[in-house]
Amino acid sequence: MKHRLIMLATGLLLLSTTSIAQPKVYQNLKLSDEKRVENLLNQLTLDEKIDYLSTDLGVKRLRIPSYGHYEGLHGLTLGGPGRWGKRIKNPDGSEGQIEYPTTIFPQSYGLGETWDPDLIRRIGELEGTEARYYSQAANQDVQKALVLRVPNADLARDPRWGRTEESFGEDPFLTATMSTAMVRGLQGDHPKYWRSAALLKHFLANSNEDGRDSTSSNFDEQLFREYYSYPFYKAITEGGSRAFMASYNGWNGITMCVNPILESITRKEWGNNGIICTDGGAFKLLVEAHHAYKTMEEGAAAIVKATTGQFLDDYRTAIKGALSQGLLTEKDIDKAIRGNIFVALKLGLLDCKDSRNPYLPIGRDTLATPPFHTQEAKALAREAMSKSVVLLKNDNSTRLLPLDLDRFKKIALIGPYANEIVQDWYSGKPPYEVTIYDGLKSALRGSGVEIKMAKDNKMGQAEQLAKWADVVIACYGNHPYGHKTDWKFCPVPSDGREAVDRQTMNLPEEEVLKLLHQANPNTILVLVSSFPYTINWSNEHLPAIVHITHCAQEQGNGLADVLLGKVNPAGRLTQTWVRSITDLPEMMDYDIRHGRTYMYSQRPVLYPFGYGLSYSKFEYQAVKTVSTDKKDEIRVVVNVKNDSQRDGEEVVQLYAAYPDSHFSNPQKQLKAFKRVMIKAGQTIPVELTVKKTDLRRWDTKARQWIYVPGKTGILLGSSSADIRLSTSLDISAGGIIKAAQK
């Protein structure tokens, strides 16, 4: 009898072990995503569902690994001024930080100025790969995360916005294109799995920092569809993003984290069946700043019922209180967290050991070179930096750039950013940094050119150095204040950052530039800035001006490549640079039709949207072809000639105008662009593709996209203000589009 009991117990143990080893239903790769998500949802206890309202995609009981969020606006953040690295306790009891290196690119504002979606996609690929590396490498003691808070799809409607540095620019089409490219790079092109999950920031119309915790961005539905939501719409419907963060502000009086459009538009219309999360602290602000609800329990219930499924602050007590008070049901939570589970599935977190996820090997080879140390990563960082350089001025009479080393044997490098790269709040820790001084010194090695540096003009040292030099390179701009934890710390009125908008737009160092120019007329301004300045004096008097942004680990090498002519600049502005702050509408006026952006501005500007110079000269010779053969596309082919002795890239821009439309019309709207290399003396056909649906307008009465019958102008040029050629299309109300008869 005893022997039989032992055999029975052994059999039960084997049966139990076998059943444990069997894949769960939600791990069954043969089932649809929907069935797998539904099955896991049914497996969770109520407490686990409440836990799943956080940023953690793991379930400990079911051995689903814990993965959270990383920031990543211009490189993965596992260190840097924002202290995104691992927090530790030092032996003396103080708090320390372990920083992990990652590839750091120019700020998003600079990445936008590349006008190169393919480059942005490749940057996304590297960033997603680095996230996999740190999350999967056995020798890396770091918080695991595969949901990356990037890109920022907000539009920089006003250059005073403190977070302009995080945006690709003011234009919805350009921002949509760049955001979509970043999403595709981050997530990859595998049909089943994602490399990482791209979480868009910040939905919606979040472009004032002062009062952002309680203000409302007010505008009509046409601007919602055609402008503010457009980059999010494209990044979700075409890029494939299935995650975004709701912004702090409200839209037309309703706070975004509880706004009904989260479900009615982004989920039901656009198909975002993934994550919607609050911004950090937004839950508390909903009650205490917006005063939208009297109690935390009411606020928590409203957030979940809006299908916002992740909180970025403490919420559990309030959620449990809302459940006990009948303000919230378990089904409400199910609906909100379903998208979190879907994202976990796409990342491969719900698979068993025989997963077919192609991204699992990343980081598993302990002998492989970490991705941020590879030559490919360094080359990509340098390419991004050089492509982001915008040449704002290069006087024809002096032609200082590119620097002629037979002419200039003594170079004075002046300013606070001549030998320092300042990382912003959302930067990580680069594996190395090449300052402007480092880059020029390296490039000039063996040339016989002498370079000297002065950080400032104390006791007139910068002026003396300028007198000594053949040419002066002055490096001035803003400070991102990434090292400060005081959210309201911006002592210079023209500086800005998260939580602080700019109060002025003048460059304080223009007074010093006057002295340097007086000492040496060959003074070049390298404006290292996160946003536009009203540099009217500099534009009038200095012979050459270049714009770059902060943070890039290859800042010095990339800039040296341009200054010395190794790379021909082709960066273009993504925002209108006004002449005066008085040319802007009031900060809280979100109706851009009142004079904002290149689409509606009526005043002369310093530099227009899309502007940037080259060392080459390009001619637009003819619109060769306008074809509407394809049902969903319009092809426009224009011949462009490089009428110079130097190979260079041109950014060909196509704008649409609506002379026959009864709508409130922009002067023009960007609808296509292409950055192309053209060899010296060569003429090439440049093909631009416009989606027919991108020529539709939003009808607020019918509440749908429509074709407005009549002529639509097609404008081609080198910037929004430099239109070289034009043609037109005839559009019917039914969407039939034909080339207009001449």
Topology readout:
Layout: H1 2-21, H2 33-43, H3 46-51, E1 68-71, E2 86-89, E3 95-98, H4 108-112, H5 117-136, E4 145-149, H6 172-187, E5 197-198, E6 200-203, E7 216-217, H7 221-228, H8 230-237, E8 243-246, E9 250-251, E10 254-255, H9 261-267, E11 275-277, H10 282-288, H11 296-305, H12 316-324, H13 330-346, H14 375-388, E12 390-394, E13 410-414, H15 436-443, E14 450-454, H16 461-468, E15 471-477, H17 510-519, E16 523-528, H18 536-541, E17 544-548, H19 555-563, E18 577-578, H20 597-600, E19 605-607, E20 618-627, E21 633-642, E22 648-657, E23 669-678, E24 683-691, E25 697-699, E26 704-706, E27 710-719, E28 722-731, E29 737-739
Parallel strand pairs: 1-4, 4-5, 6-8, 7-9, 8-11, 13-14, 13-15, 15-16, 16-17
Antiparallel strand pairs: 2-3, 9-10, 12-17, 18-19, 20-21, 21-24, 22-23, 22-27, 25-26, 27-28, 28-29
Helix pairs in contact: 2-13, 5-6, 5-14, 6-8, 10-11, 11-12, 14-19, 15-19, 16-17
